[in-house]
Amino acid sequence: MEYTLDMRFINFSKKPDLNYPILIAGFEGWPNAGCISSDVLSFLKKGLGVKKFAEVNPDIFHKYSNNRPYAKIEGGEIKYLLFSPYEFFYKKNTICPDLILFLGKEPQLQWKQFTRSFLKLATDFDVKMLITIGGTYDYVTHNQAPWISGVFTDHDLRHKVVASGIKDAKYEGPVSIHTFLLKEAEEVGSLIALRGATLICGGLSGVMEAASKGAKSHGGLTIGILPHNDKKEANPYIDIPIATGLGLTRNAIIARAADVLIAVGGEYGTLSEIAFALQMGKPVVGIRTWDIKGVIVAEKAADAVNKAFELIQ
């Protein structure tokens, strides 16, 4: 089964039913000093007994000449060829939250496309928290204890983590894919707020939270149309949480309330929003989403926002 964000990007072997999972990601390469990313994720994989459910197509993001596939050749025959540099795993739990683990090499090409695909997967699984683990070589001598610090998009979480003894990160210089993941998620929300519009979204965490944060950072108003009955489910950047108790049926409310929809990738939930909007006569702009008559195609966030505002003026 192919992920409907784009037929080229993410391949699924199965689609697990997860309940607001936490996504923990580690990248090999530049952000893997001391093997902190790979060792932590490998430890979690082995200790938790996770199951693989998806992988990112390496042809789009990887230079094979820099990191080649691994093969075993015996008796003049190729016994196996291994190469899966970007893998997703899952673990369902009864006591603690469900988990998604990602372990992969830092992409060498198309960082923005990679982050958008990665974050859209997080959105479609209703990921409530994204944690990236990495390490860089810094101003720490061999006889000093390692520094543990963090970068946050959630202020409440930041206060809790800092209270536990982990420091705020302070850094200026070249960045890893982690930084792209954090900033890309805020772009659409920021652009909408800068145009003086109200952001209406599903109101939960993950990419929805990042978009809400982007809108709030520029003084925008945010409305969250929540699927369940508890307003407390809304992310901290939602000004007006609306608890519908309608599950996925809330997509019709989102479509009705919006003047224009911007669909970014998505699975059947996004397809239903597109269908509702088109039936209601609402314009829809799509970024790498379903190929449906009536959807206006945009390549990037800025292009999508510009087209959306042109349609409602």
Tell me about this structure.
The protein has 313 residues and is α/β, with parallel strands linked by helices. The protein folds into two domains: 127 residues, PAC-like subunit (Rossmann fold); 127 residues, Rossmann fold. 32% of the residues lie in helices and 23% in strands. The protein contains nine helices and 16 strands. Strands 1-3-6-7-2-8 form a six-stranded mixed beta sheet, covered by helices on one side. The longest helix has 18 residues. The two termini are 40 Å apart.
Give the amount of beta strand, in percent. 15-25%
- Name the helicity range: 25-40%
| Gyration radius, rounded | 20 Å
How many domains, in number, for the residues? 2
CATH class of the largest domain: Alpha Beta
Q: How many strand units? A: 16
CATH homologous superfamily title of the largest domain: PAC-like subunit
Largest sheet: 6 strands, mixed
**Main sheet: strand order:** 1-3-6-7-2-8
Q: Helix and strand succession?
A: EEHEHEEEEHEEHEHEHEEHEHEEH
N-end to C-end Cα span: 40 Å
Calculate the mean pLDDT score and round it: 80
Count of runs of 4 or more consecutive helical residues: 9
Which fold name is given in CATH as the topology of the largest domain? Answer: Rossmann fold
Q: What structural category do the secondary elements indicate?
A: alpha/beta
Q: Assign an overall shape.
A: globular
What would CATH call the architecture of the largest domain?
Answer: 3-Layer(aba) Sandwich
Low-confidence stretches: 1-7
